[in-house]
Structure formats: C-alpha cells, structure tokens
C-alpha cells in the first residue's frame, strides 16, 4: 500500500486515550505490514490558553513524560512524529497543516482519540484498496458506524444497529471490537457523509484537493466543508467516490469516556479559549460562503 499517515490531535486529558489508541493500532499491526507504509503524527496541545496549569492537581510534566513514554510503543510504524505544541493549534489547525504540507506523497487517515476500531481494520484497508484504485485515484474510505443521531447518518450505519432500539450513547464500543472479514462489502457513495476523525481514509491524490480556507477553523466545520466540497467537485468533472466498508465498524466511546471525562472536569481546569471556537454560527456562514465561491468558480 502507498505511504499512509495517521493524524491524531490530543489535549492533556486525552493522554490515556492516546495510550489506548496506540495499543489498538499495535494489535492491528499484527494483521498488517505497517512498517512498510504506515506513519503517525501525534500532537499534544499543552497551551496555557486551554489549561490553567497553575491550578491543576496533576503536574504538567506528568503529561509530557507519559506522552514520551507512549511514543516508545510505536516501533511498528515506518516513522513516528510525537510533537509537543503550545501554540494553540487545535485539531482543525493540525489537519489543515497536514493537508497543506501533503502534495499527494501519502494517503491520510484522520483519527480522533475517543474512537474504538477493530484490529482487522488495517488488514481490510490493505485488501480493498487495490480494487478501488482500479476505478478511481481520488477517493475516500469510511468504515461503518453503528448508528447516530438521526437518519441522515444511516448511509454509513450498520443495518443491524439501525434496526435496534438501543440508543447510540448506550452502545458498548468494545463489543464492536471485531470485523466480519468474511462478509466485507463496499458501498460506492457520492452523497458523502462522514465525521473527520472516524478512521476516514483519504487517498493521496484526493489530498491534493483538500485545501481548507483559513477562515474555517473548528474541526466539525472542516468536516462539513470537505463533505460538501467533494459533492461540488463531483459536479465539476471530478470523480470522488466515498467507499463505505460494510461490516467493519468504528464508534466513539460515548458510553464510558464521554460519560466519565474525569480528568478535565476534576483534575485539569479546562477553559475553551480558542478563537476558532467562538461564534460557531458565524463560522458556519463562512463555510457556506466558501462553498458558494467554489460552486461559482
């Protein structure tokens, strides 16, 4: 498989989730030749504009030391970049920086800290990509999710969970830690739907088109911009399909992590003080403005 980079952004209260993610990826590497193609770029945001370190019950150095310790687990990657950053980059900023610095040299996988994924996921990607690339070079791949807020997410949701009465906040993500490799299917979709950090895979050629305007800051606005941008480009003689992997599921850990975010509630005074988080309605207007500009080019 072509060179592929995982981009991953955390705040200090995500440090245990990073350790869990690296452990998940280390297990996945048992089914994949990751040393041949896979790299990871992890940024730890230590900005004092987000964390009031003077009032923290856990010292700042603890997170720095653990971050460096977790890096030692990463001997299954081709290359590793663990970066301490205090410049208030934000996950949106990291993603933009990575897209801007990549001119088709590598594929990109966007991964959020709270995502649970099956150990077979890299094996599945390795095996489905050769057939996909016979059809298109500018493509993205999205694993299925169980279910989400409303029916607009059903296109990437697994039928078994859509029909289930269970609420998405009550789903045990660790029961999803498997993949039915004997029954993998692909849905070719042009009505794109995704959230950026849910193990989405963007082909190297597609990343050449993924330049995000600077006035679109926060991550979910970037997700929406890219989602709608792909649809617009498809109307302009591009071919950007989204391949949805049936029976390979990922999910946010909403049952355990989101219900028990003890670190930044109890031990780390966390303050949202980022310019790109302010005025989400105004940022949404900027997204629409940029999309209209793209339509009229």
Report on the structure:
The protein is of the alpha/beta class and 297 residues long. The chain has one domain: Spore Coat Polysaccharide Biosynthesis Protein SpsA, Chain A. 34% of the residues lie in helices and 18% in strands. The chain is built from ten helices and ten strands. Strands 3-2-1-4-8-6-9-7 form an eight-stranded mixed beta sheet, with helices on both faces. The chain has a two-stranded antiparallel sheet with strand order 5-10. Strand 2, helix 3 (60-71) and strand 3 form a beta-alpha-beta unit. Helix 1 (15-28) packs parallel to helix 3 (60-71) and helix 8 packs parallel to helix 10 (280-295). The longest helix is centred in the C-terminal third of the chain and has 16 residues, at 219-234. It is globular and about 55 Å long.
Question: What is this structure's SSE topology?
Answer:
Elements: E1 4-10, H1 15-28, H2 34-37, E2 38-45, H3 60-71, E3 79-85, H4 90-101, E4 107-111, E5 115-116, H5 121-133, E6 140-144, H6 159-162, E7 185-189, E8 198-202, H7 204-207, H8 219-234, E9 242-249, E10 251-252, H9 262-267, H10 280-295
Parallel strand pairs: 1-2, 1-4, 2-3, 6-9
Antiparallel strand pairs: 4-8, 5-10, 6-8, 7-9
Helix pairs in contact: 1-3, 8-10
Structural descriptors:
alpha/beta; Spore Coat Polysaccharide Biosynthesis Protein SpsA, Chain A; 8-stranded mixed beta sheet; two-stranded antiparallel sheet; 10 strands; globular
């Amino acid at each position: 498989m072509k060179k592929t980079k995982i981009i991953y952004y955390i705040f200090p209260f995500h440090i245990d989730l990073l350790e869990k993610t690296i452990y998940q990826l280390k297990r996945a590497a048992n089914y994949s030749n990751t040393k041949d193609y896979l790299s990871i770029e992890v940024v730890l945001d230590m900005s004092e504009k987000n964390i009031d370190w003077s009032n923290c019950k856990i010292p700042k150095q603890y997170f720095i030391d653990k971050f460096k310790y977790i890096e030692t687990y990463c001997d299954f990657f081709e290359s590793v970049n663990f970066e301490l950053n205090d410049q208030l980059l934000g996950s949106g900023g990291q993603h933009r920086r990575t897209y801007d610095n990549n001119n088709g040299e590598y594929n990109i996988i966007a991964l959020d800290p709270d995502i649970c994924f099956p150990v077979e996921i890299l094996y599945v990607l390795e095996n489905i990509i050769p057939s996909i690339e016979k059809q298109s070079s500018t493509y993205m791949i999205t694993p299925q999710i169980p279910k989400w807020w409303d029916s607009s997410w059903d296109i990437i949701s697994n039928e078994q969970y859509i029909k289930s009465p269970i609420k998405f906040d009550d789903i045990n993500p660790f029961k999803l830690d498997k993949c039915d490799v004997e029954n993998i299917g692909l849905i070719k979709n042009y009505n794109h739907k995704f959230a950026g950090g849910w193990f989405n895979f963007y082909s190297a050629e597609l990343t050449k088109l993924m330049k995000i305007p600077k006035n679109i800051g926060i991550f979910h606005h970037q997700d929406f911009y890219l989602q709608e941008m792909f649809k617009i480009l498809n109307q302009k003689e591009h071919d950007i399909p989204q391949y949805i992997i049936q029976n390979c599921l990922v999910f946010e850990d909403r049952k355990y992590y989101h219900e028990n975010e003890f670190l930044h509630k109890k031990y780390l005074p966390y303050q949202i003080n980022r310019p790109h988080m302010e005025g989400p309605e105004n940022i949404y207007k900027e997204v629409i403005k940029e999309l209209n500009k793209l339509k009229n080019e």
